[in-house]
Structures are given as structure tokens and as C-alpha cells.
Design brief:
The complex is a heterodimer of chains A (about 120) and B (about 120). Chain A has about 120 residues and is mostly beta strands. Chain A is built from no helices and twelve strands. The chains are: A mainly beta (about 120), B mainly beta (about 120).
């Protein structure tokens, strides 16, 4: 069974500094996808970045980058130059592979980030 | 402008009553999903549907039911059999085929704004 672990329940970060959010995963399947979502106080989930298990390079999207270490089964999210609007809960998720799985996602417990001015 | 809508935003229910949460999308996505989120926790999958008139149970389907009569709509009914229904419910949709590095190309799920259900 797939499992996602986020060990940091909450953290503070100073505005304009970088922050790294930890995510480790467990799967026996060689093909998988990893996602990061942001959940602001409004509750809606916002897709940030994706990393495929066979991707040769670490994913980047603007201020978001993914430190993908396949051997360690970790996919840490790095947010550079933090902004006040980055305050939210961040979730790591893994897609269960296979057509029969229906593109299902398994989510970690989330990390709450509070950016201080 | 395409998206997913959920209604109502807040819902109150008396114990023993069934209640239906609405989810509509105009993204032309084949797949739709229902998740439950409890305070301080991640999302757990209730039901999902890959195509009209077909759906599968997720990890916590007991006490819930769904229908998928139209591509755009995937309503969730919380029945009286659900022992602890107070939670935040999120609906999502996605495409079901890979199509490159455009929006939706990772089959990422797009989420609605959620419905907060409280049982009185």
C-alpha cells in the first residue's frame, strides 16, 4: 500500500527566506507521480508542482522547486523568497499507478506554514 | 472560465438525516472524486468516478453514496449510517489521459471550494 509521511506539523518562516517542507513516501511500484498542493485558509486545494518517478530532472515551477531523492524516497518542496501569501497548509500526495486505480491520490497529513513579516 | 463548484459552502444537519452535497464541473473532465478532511489531517478518498454511470469506493466509503448520471455532476449523499459526518468535504476532477506539460497534463486533480458539514 502507498503511504505519504509529512513529519513537520507546522513551521514559521521569515518573509523573503526560503523554506523546505519534507515529504517521504513508500511504494513498491516503480512508476508513480508525486504532487504538492497548497491549502489556504479558504479551504480550496491549489496544485503547485508535479514530479514523475522517471523524470530525470527535479521539477520547478516559479518559486517552487522539488528536491526529489528517489533512493531515499523523498520529495521535499522548496519555496524560495517566501511571501505572506504563502501562509497555508501544504500537502504532499502520491498517485497510485495503473488505469484501474483511476488516478487516485494518497495524501500526507500536511504541514502548516506561517510566514512572518 | 472553467472550474468546479460545490454547494452549499456550509451545511448543518440533524442526526439521523441524509444530506446531499453538490459538485459540478465545466472542465470537461472524465474523472471526479470526493474527499473528506478532518481537522489537522490530510484528505481521505470517499468515492471516485472515471466515467459516467460508473463509480468506485475509496478508502472510507461506508455511510456515503454517490451517483454519476452526467459528466458534469457528481453529488455525494451523506447517509444516517455515517457515524461521524462532521467534516470538510472536497470534490475534485481530472482528465484521465496524459497530454503533456499543459494545465491538466499531469492528470492533476482540480478542487472545488469545499463544503463544511456540521451535524447538530
Amino acid at each position: 500500500a502507498q503511504k505519504i509521511t509529512q513529519t513537520q506539523p507546522g513551521m514559521f518562516v521569515q518573509e523573503k527566506e526560503a523554506v523546505t517542507l519534507d515529504c517521504t513516501y513508500d511504494t513498491s511500484d516503480p512508476s508513480y507521480g508525486l504532487f504538492w498542493y497548497k491549502q489556504p485558509s479558504s479551504g480550496e486545494m491549489i496544485f503547485l508542482i508535479y514530479q514523475g518517478s522517471y523524470d530525470q530532472q527535479n521539477a520547478t515551477e516559479g518559486r517552487y522547486s522539488l528536491n526529489f531523492q528517489k533512493a531515499r524516497k523523498s520529495a521535499n518542496l522548496v519555496i524560495s523568497a517566501s511571501q505572506l501569501g504563502d501562509s497555508a497548509i501544504y500537502f504532499c500526495a502520491m498517485r497510485v499507478p495503473g488505469k484501474a486505480a483511476g488516478n487516485k491520490l494518497t495524501f500526507g497529513g500536511g504541514t502548516r506554514v506561517l510566514v512572518k513579516p | 472560465d472553467g472550474g468546479i463548484t460545490q454547494s452549499p459552502k456550509y451545511l448543518f444537519r440533524k442526526e439521523g438525516q441524509n444530506v446531499t452535497l453538490s459538485c459540478e464541473q465545466n472542465l470537461n473532465h472524465d474523472a471526479m472524486y470526493w474527499y473528506r478532511q478532518d481537522p489537522g489531517q490530510g484528505l481521505r478518498l470517499i468515492y471516485y468516478s472515471q466515467i459516467v454511470n460508473d463509480f468506485q469506493k475509496g478508502d472510507i466509503a461506508e455511510g456515503y453514496s454517490v451517483s454519476r448520471e452526467k459528466k458534469e455532476s457528481f453529488p455525494l449523499t451523506v447517509t444516517s449510517a455515517q457515524k461521524n459526518p462532521t467534516a470538510f468535504y472536497l470534490c475534485a476532477s481530472s482528465i484521465t489521459g496524459t497530454s503533456g506539460r499543459r494545465r491538466g497534463g499531469y492528470n492533476e486533480q482540480f478542487f472545488g471550494p469545499g463544503t463544511r458539514l456540521t451535524v447538530l
